[in-house]
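We append the chain.
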Amino acid sequence: MRLLNLSDAIDRFPWTISPDSTVIEAVGLMSQKRSIKDDLTSLNSSFESKIRSQQGSSCILIMEGTQLLGIFTYEDVVRLVASGMDLSRAKMSQVMTQQVITLTQSNSQDIFTALSLLHQHQIRHLPILDNVGQLLGIVTETSLLELLLLEEEKFTDQEEVNQELQKTLEELQVVSEELRQQNEQLTTAR
């Protein structure tokens, strides 16, 4: 099995917000659905990424300029609501997870490293950075598994094609043998 390319699983359009924004603003943004039209700003984005982006997001990245400062997930929302915190006043800088586990794309081109990091750190979102620390996008266990399933479907389709080709080859061999025998009979008859 070929190593699946990590870049095929990256959502290059993650939701981002500033550290001065409130939790309510973040939750509102996370619940919004983006249209495919919004994603057409990048010609490199995959169709699967565009479809995923229509669903809203289970996390938001906290950015200051091009610097990734933290991450905020629905699990954080549940934790804050349970604590009774006023979400309209709480700033992202106060509640975000600051120790963000990331992966530099050049360190790994296959999805299995990303899956391993997700499981090792028991996280569901993994920001992907370029060589200079700039955000490229984010992968989730779901996006990685979707890519695996897509590859499995391709592999299954390839197996079916191979079986059909094998069957056709066997039929051609039978026809070839029949033609050889007929040719021998014609030669003998002459």
